[in-house]
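User: Hi! Is it possible to get a structure for several chains at once, not just one? Here's what I have:
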Amino acid sequence: MAALIGSVADAHVTDLTINAFSLPNGQSPSLSKSDKSGDALTLGNSKLDFDRQSSLNNSLFKFGWKDMISERFTMGSKRSTLLPHTSSAKERGISSDHSTHLHLQGFKPNVKTDYVVY
Amino acid sequence: MLKLIMLSIKLCLTMKCYPLLLIGSVIILSCKNHSKNQEKNTNVISLSQNSNTGNKVEEGYTNSKNHDPYLLIGDFNGDSYIDTLKIVTNNKTRKDALLYKFGITKQEIILPNGNMLGQDFDDFNWIGEMHKIVKGNKVWNNVKNGEIIGQNQVGDSEKIILQTDAVFIHESEGGGGGIIYWLNGEFHWIQQD
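Assistant: Yes, the chains can be modeled jointly so their relative placement is included. Here is the combined structure:
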């Protein structure tokens, strides 16, 4: 949670939408359908702010998420592109649609611990 | 009919017309086979009629209006006949369920929750993605140590070749889901994400 707060602060993001957290076995806590507020954007949608999303991805990577799953998309002159630090679900053989959200995993934060001796 | 056949045989023997007797035998055998097929078809019709009269399951449900698509067509039990799978809403509880209707027998099976699949959800209202996976495809549990793994990270021994068509269901925009397939008279669940 600290890393997530750090990421959004680092990228100056104030409108992050979290659809679900998963249990350690990969299942969602209730498997209930996410409340779709209508804010989630499909990759390639003209409303998607590519630069802001890229900035957030860079921050998420910086704060520890080394494996992010998304999908290739075309936006303007950017053809079959991927967001920074992401890989294509289809190319990995993952059946579910990842063009509508960013899946974060592979959390390996680079934590530096300073010991204070009183 | 039998008297006519016996009379024909007697006539053939009397007239020593053996080739005609042989042809007659073939025709009689052919007729017998045809009546066997008719008998088989009759049984099939009878079975489906019986199932229709006991068609209680679907009565308590209506097709879901919250899912698109809500219906899939495929051979979900592997008998080579077309079956249907629908997301339906229980008229009393308003909870969503899966309703299988097997084509030739008209047998209906309702999955009201995840219990028969070894899962703890009590409703299927969370389905946001649904599509058929065709028989013969390889499927696998794609969650290991709490993370999604790709097909290259799963050994062939851990992959299952589908013997029937299966259904992929998943929450929309993330979350989890699974693949449901029928094998040896039971439903099975493979976790996806």
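Chain A touches chain B at residues 19-20, 22-28, 30-34, 36, 40, 67, 69, 91-97, 100-101, 103, 105-106 (CB under 8 Å). Chain A has one domain: 2-107.

User: Great, thank you!
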